[in-house]
Every structure is written in structure tokens, then in C-alpha cells.
Design goal:
CATH superfamily of the largest domain: P-loop containing nucleotide triphosphate hydrolases
CATH topology of the largest domain: Rossmann fold
Radius of gyration: 20 Å
Strand order of the largest sheet: 1-2-3
Oligomer: single chain
Shape: globular
Number of domains: 2
Number of helices: 5
């Protein structure tokens, strides 16, 4: 899945796991990467092992671009991100070949272009779904549903929040009133 922050990618992943009656393992990809050599790889392997043990399971990686950017962008001397990408590809290939209860991997990123192309090949993360921000008419009901069990301060007006958090798409220069300077 890809889309701007706050558009509901994680909530959608949770709903998918619930609908499939599968266990849900959520991973914030930036938390896997550490400065200790070999520790990041151990964490990633442990996550896949735990998800296989919990199968049927939906393993959800949020902010996947932090874990698997296009190769060559890792400036560390240990090349941790390149090694993690290699391990991720091996694990993904193992999911398809595994017997037993299913393990499904779902990842969220800001854009597919933020990920290494090898992740996006057939049999890996080959289905791409854009998740746009909710329509203005749905924002308030969603916000109410998501905060129904959360205590809110007396001065919080949820009716104001969708308008405050809604971002307008960037306008092109022609739409912004710029003119050709011929």
C-alpha cells in the first residue's frame, strides 16, 4: 500500500487481518535498523520466525522505505540496509514456498518508487494499492469511530479536526496564478 502519512494504511491492514481471521503483526520498519552490526538482521529474522509461528498471520511493515530503499543509497560502511534488503528478499521468497498456514506480508510506503525494485517483482510485493486520504465527508465519522474509547479534553471539537488536518494537493504553477514571462 502506498499513500501519504495519516491516510489509514495501518488501519486498513488491521481490518484485512480481522476480516481474514488472521493474527496481525505490525512492524515499524525504522525500529528494526540498529547501529549494532548483525542486530538488525537478527531482528528481521526473528520477526519472520514469530509471524510463521503465529500463522495464519498478516505481517505488516509500516514505513517500508526506511528498511528497503533502492540499493546504493546505504552510505554506512557496514551496508546494513543492503544486507537487510537481501534478507528480506530471501524471506519473501520463502513465504511463497512454505507449506502450512498462510503468512501474508503487507507493506506500506509513501510511494512504490521509494522501495528497491527487487521487492516489487512478481511473487513478492507485486500488488500495489494507493490509499488516498479519506474524503472530507468521511473524515469526521472515521475520527469519531477511532476515538470512541479515547478520553478527550473538554475543549476538543472533533468537528474542527478534519478541516485542520486535511492537506490540499500541491498546485501547479499555472493554477497558482503564475504567468509565462515572455
Amino acid at each position: 500500500m502506498h499513500g501519504p502519512p495519516g491516510c489509514g494504511k495501518t488501519s486498513l491492514a488491521r481490518l484485512l487481518a480481522t476480516a481474514a481471521r488472521a493474527n496481525f503483526v505490525e512492524v515499524h520498519a525504522p525500529q528494526i535498523v540498529t547501529a549494532v552490526v548483525g542486530e538488525s538482521e537478527r531482528r528481521l529474522s526473528s520477526l519472520f520466525a514469530a509471524a510463521r509461528a503465529a500463522a495464519p498471520c498478516l505481517l505488516f511493515f509500516d514505513q517500508m522505505e526506511a528498511l528497503a530503499p533502492p540499493r546504493g543509497q546505504d552510505t554506512s560502511s557496514e551496508k546494513t540496509l543492503d544486507r537487510l534488503l537481501s534478507l528480506m528478499l530471501v524471506e519473501l521468497d520463502g513465504i511463497a514456498a512454505a507449506a502450512g498456514p498462510p503468512l501474508v506480508l503487507l507493506a506500506a510506503a509513501s510511494s512504490p518508487s521509494a522501495l528497491d525494485a527487487a521487492l516489487l517483482r512478481p511473487g513478492r510485493l507485486d500488488v500495489h494499492v494507493q490509499v488516498p486520504p479519506p474524503a472530507a465527508a468521511l473524515a469526521l465519522p472515521l475520527l469519531r469511530r477511532m476515538t470512541c474509547r479515547t478520553p478527550l479534553a473538554a475543549d476538543v471539537d472533533l468537528g474542527e479536526r478534519p478541516a485542520e488536518t486535511r492537506r490540499d494537493p500541491p498546485r501547479r504553477a499555472a493554477e497558482a496564478g503564475s504567468r509565462d514571462s515572455r
